[in-house]
Model the fold of this input.
Amino acid sequence: MTDPTAPTADPDALRGRALAALLAARERTALLTECVDEADLTAQHSPLMSPLVWDLAHIGNQEELWLLRAVAGRDAMRPEIDPLYDAFEHPRSERPTLPLLAPGEARSYAAEVRGRALDLLERIEFRGTPLTHDGFAFGMIAQHEQQHDETMLITHQLRKGPAALSAPDPEPSGFAGPAEVLVPGGPFTMGTSTEPWALDNERPAHRRLVPPFFIDTVPVTNGAYQLFISDGGYEEQRWWTPEGWAYIREHGVTAPLFWRQEGGMWLRRRFGVTEPVPPDEPVLHVSWYEADAYARWAGRRLPSETEWEKAARHDPVTGRTMRFPWGDADPRPEHANLGQRHLRPAPAGSYPAGESPLGVRQLIGDVWEWTSSDFLPYPGFVTFPYKEYSEVFFGPDYKVLRGGSFAVGEVACRGTFRNWDYPIRRQIFSGFRTARDATPAERSQGAL
Done:
């Protein structure tokens, strides 16, 4: 971590950034929890997810734990509820049976915590401890709330009944660029040691040597994925890992989650609305097993997370590693589809302003992209501020996803941000793009 005694960034600017991030997250939380009635808030819409009211109170409880207790040193406001909202204490399937705070009580608790946290923000000095330096704790809490907002949006997708949310659709793309781009070989700096609100698994920055490779210019689309289905992709064992084949046979998986075929047409359910599957959108709600099988069928493979990050952050002209594909500036609406501005991915090839120097598009936003990599620590990894965020998940059970989705808040999305999940997961907003090794002739062109 950064030296906590070192001078911090401009305190007023930092205070403003933290305030904006906290307010944006809370506005979104309100949108997700106030658009349904109390019965919807307390119901468990899927055993994979918590009731929405649990997420609401958990958000407040984590904010109290880290800002009011850890940073401000205050006593617990309601110590008796801590075990109820400890994500490791009770699996999601059991949470509806707990004596949870009722919706009104959960809202009042979260609001009271937020009021005290904003009072703290007005007078805090952003130095002295690793938690306070550069406002890390405030950034961590804003990211945590946005991550649970994405979780609650997944719950909205899983809930039955009429639509409760609405948003405008993205603009058409009309992209007609190349199908793939060559990423030159050579070293690049992966991870970060300077991003003030980066989480522990993104650290530290370190050098990686990457051979030349090709990567898809855009994520794999619904139309392309339908070709895999129509070619018998779910019926050919040769495309699947043994674990993946066993899983789809046992669970009867024959298409992305929420898809069904009717009258020769593919339909999908999206936030309470049934609609034709748009062929030009990135495919969504596929597991790692499905992404890996498609890549094999296409004669390609999933990129490693090292390859993905190099494609997203490396500028081959300057050799510099950037924060985002478009540079170092924070995301803006013209760069990427983030923050639930839309309730779907944008068409493949959208956001030319967010293109990487190599010409790769939509690396940030739209869909989380599965990579071939297991979730492992970087060399020199140090747990901070608690091992349950990253450390307990390291190992071969989890696969890494990169780039964020349309459901990810801007504060919780960076070129270094790492997500992870079981390879069976499909309810998440996951898609993918493919890669391939460069041939010897292509390697000579792509070497530095």
